[in-house]
Specification:
Strand order of the largest sheet: 1-2-3-7-8-9-10-11-12
CATH architecture: Alpha-Beta Barrel
Protein name: Glycoside hydrolase superfamily
Number of domains: 1
Number of helices: 9
Keywords: Hydrolase
Organism: Lipomyces orientalis
Bound molecules: 2-acetamido-2-deoxy-beta-D-glucopyranose
CATH class: Alpha Beta
Strand content: 15-25%
Helix content: 25-40%
Radius of gyration: 18 Å
Largest sheet: 9 strands, mixed
Shape: globular
Length: about 325
């Protein structure tokens, strides 16, 4: 993983929608209690592929390194069944759309999965997608503070690090803060209450950025496994966003990868670790670059580059505008 890559692309994916989250509903806090009671060990159900590998790898990163208010993730023994832990394991090649810029208003693109902003979309929109036979992944930033979110005032000053490069309204979060983790548990409750099938927690790669909090890969590994345990306890699935360097230590707990620009940065072989164990890579390329967002198809040459990369052959690739509006071009 090059730092250059992360500096350039780690922030292309979230943050828009400075308006209208509509529905910060009063969800029962009682769900949180479940989180500490159900031992979660992740992993695909009914997926023969790669089970053993996933379990062994999943065990590696399990040591809880920072004090938290929650139970440390359980140790995974080699033969332990995880059949009750994860109910939705999408297949390699699952098709998808991602739209984060505004509340979803176009569900016509015929794919298996929609990845949409958790705050900006309400339960009825998610229910509409379910009515169309689709699954819904709810996006939120887990590793950055966004000053416009409805729960922004819950963060403490001591939770906040440097401003994200290029994103003046966001700061890196201290991933081992118990307060931050409580807030993320509440967000997972919100996702559950809205009916999300899974979550897409972003910005978990502070270690690769000038975060101002001395965040390391170990902090990210512990945080991602913490999120996984809590997510699975709510019968939802989750994926790892970018963060190629920590894949071996968390992949056992992840149901997919969400990757941006692995073709552009020649990193797809790193993310193929997911498809190798039967888990999809939801992959985005932005051939138009940083500043062009329109409804025009990319050139045939651009499309071939994005779609035909030999390391990404089984990825769920989509071509998008950098602002992640509704426009999409499938491979
Ligand atoms: C978080 O990690 C940092 C860096 O390792 C450490 O200095 C700090 O004490 C930790 N804080 C908590 C609350 O665990
Ligand atoms: C896992 O199962 C195999 C086959 O039943 C057995 O030989 C092995 O000892 C088991 N490993 C553990 C850690 O229980
Ligand atoms: C868990 O999720 C699966 C797949 O989305 C669903 O079929 C099942 O009914 C859910 N179980 C519970 C207890 O909610
Ligand atoms: C969806 O909403 C966006 C932002 O308000 C708007 O620009 C776009 O035209 C809308 N699309 C449709 C299909 O209504
Ligand atoms: C990309 O793959 C498609 C489908 O297999 C094929 O039709 C097309 O010729 C390929 N393009 C290149 C440049 O390899
Ligand atoms: C893609 O998946 C197929 C079926 O699982 C597998 O045979 C093939 O080796 C995979 N290709 C790559 C490039 O991973």
């Amino acid at each position: 993983m090059s730092n250059t890559h992360d500096e350039i692309c780690s922030k292309v994916h979230r943050g828009w929608g400075l308006f209208n989250w509509r529905f910060w509903s009063s969800l029962p806090k009682s769900m949180v209690a479940l989180l500490v009671m159900i031992p979660i060990v992740s992993l695909a159900v009914g997926l023969g592929v790669g089970l053993g590998v996933g379990l062994r790898r999943g065990g590696e990163g399990k040591g809880s390194k920072g004090p938290t208010t929650t139970t440390p993730p359980p140790t995974i023994s080699e033969n332990q069944t995880t059949a009750t832990a994860v109910k939705w394991q999408p297949e390699v090649g699952t098709t998808w759309q991602i739209e984060l810029l505004y509340p979803l208003n176009d569900t016509s693109f015929d794919v298996d999965v929609y990845d949409i902003d958790m705050f900006d979309n309400d339960a009825s929109r998610i229910s509409d997608l379910h009515g169309q036979g689709r699954k819904v992944i709810c996006y939120f930033s887990a590793g950055s503070y966004e000053n416009w979110r409805p729960d922004a005032d819950k963060f403490k000053d001591s939770d906040l690090g440097n401003t994200l490069d290029g994103w003046p309204n966001e700061k890196w979060l201290k991933l081992n803060s118990s307060n931050v983790r409580e807030i993320m548990l509440s967000r997972l409750d919100l996702a559950k209450g809205k009916g999300c099938d899974g979550v897409d927690p972003d910005n978990v790669d502070g270690y690769d950025n000038d975060n101002g909090l001395d965040l390391t890969e170990d902090h990210s590994v512990d945080f991602v496994n913490f999120l996984a345990e809590a997510t699975h306890a709510l019968n939802m699935s989750l994926g790892l966003k970018n963060s190629g360097a920590i894949i071996p230590k968390v992949i056992g707990n992840m149901q997919w990868s969400v990757n941006e620009q692995c073709v552009q940065y020649n990193e797809c072989s790193i993310y193929a670790a997911f498809t190798d164990v039967g888990k999809p890579v939801f992959h985005i390329e932005y051939p138009k670059g940083d500043n062009t967002n329109n409804n025009k198809a990319v050139t045939t040459a651009q499309k071939n580059t994005a779609c035909n990369n030999s390391d990404a052959r089984n990825f769920s690739t989509v071509i998008k505008n950098m602002d992640l509006d509704s426009w999409i071009q499938a491979c």
